[in-house]
Amino acid sequence: MRLWIAEGFVQKTEVKSLEDTAEDYIMDLIVRSLVMVDKPKSTGGVKTCRIHDLLHEFCLRKATEENLLKLRRDDAGLPKFDEPSSMNYIPSSIANLWNLETFILKSLHGRLFLPDTVWNMQTLRCLHVSGKFFDLSLAKDNLDSSSDLCNLDTISALELDLGQSMDKIMKKFPHIRKLKCSLHETEEACGDWSKIVAMDFLRRLESLKLSFYRVKDKDYGFSFPMNLKKLTLEAFPWSMISSIGSLPNLEVLKLLGTKAGGEEIWNMEEGEFPKPKFLKLELLCIVRWTCSGDHLPCLQKLVLESCLNLEELPS
Predict the structure, then answer these.
(1) pLDDT digit string (tens) for 131-166?
(2) In the predicted model, what is the mean pLDDT of residues 167-190?
(3) Which has the minimum average pLDDT: 23-27, 47-51, 293-297?
(4) Which of 34, 47, 112, 141 has the greatest number of CB atoms lying within 10 Å of its CB?
């Protein structure tokens, strides 16, 4: 879908984003049996697809003719995609690609730092990092004078330090729809600031993953956007539960481990979690989980992994 958007094949409409329109194209191909579903999303829809080997060969041949990709073959004569070598840094000249919309990095050697010039890449829509190590730190100098990335739709593997600089960075992509980041405590985080992590101004944010590393303070407060549909919390302080139960549009919730000494009792309050269809609990310390039939009225799928102390499920 990112390739389609970058090549201008997807037309924007007033009622749908480019990504939503591209997903409609995928569904059309599935209905016509040109594409097969490989993995579904947790709330329906398609996460990954496959195609038949004959169709694959046809696509490779046409894409090569149209200069959409560069193709080479391995020693056995099988098609093999060219990939750039594991660079140690991203040069400032990356900003010279003034029309770049999708930037995908495979990080195999630790942290990656993007240069300040990334703030000049106004057409950037997707910034994605994958690999064994996926920490990504944006340079924080001159944030006040740098431009906003108003077209940025998706960011993964963003590393943020708790504190005022985190607020400044997040305000640089006001229209973000999907965000994955890890949060760290620094000297700044322990300094004189409100200890409230405000994200409610990201009004278009639908999918959020927060991973907490080297975070000891349990007094942080979080305010999430009301439009949030999918939330994943990893190694999180249990005190956050009270701030997510009232999210009116949350459909997917994944709780993947709490800090050492997490809560042993989860008492769901009246009116909490009205919309979740998918709930995953993994590596939680809870022993007792209490709720009534009025809680989680829309739940369709429950996944439990390594919650070894949990005595029983609520009726």
Answers:
(1) 654 556 676 666 777 788 899 999 987 888 887 778
(2) 83
(3) 293-297
(4) 112
The whole-model pTM stands at: 0.83
Indicate the burial class of 67 (C-beta count within 10 angstroms; 0-12, 13-18, 19 or more): exposed
Q: How far is CA 30 from CA 10, 57, 207, 218, 306, in A?
A: 17, 18, 24, 47, 35
CATH number of 85-224: 3.80.10
DSSP letter at 153?
Answer: -
Exposure letters 83-94 (e unless 16+ CB within 10 A, then b): eeeeeeebeeee
CA separation for the pair 234, 100 (Å, rounded): 31
Residue 142 zone, left/alpha/beta (φ > 0; ψ -120 to 50; rest): left
Closest among 249, 212, 204 to 231, alpha carbons compared: 249
> Of 230, 246, 140, 135, nearest to 177 (Cα)?
230
Give start and end residues of each alpha helix (H) in 35-101. 53-65
CA distance 228 to 206: 4
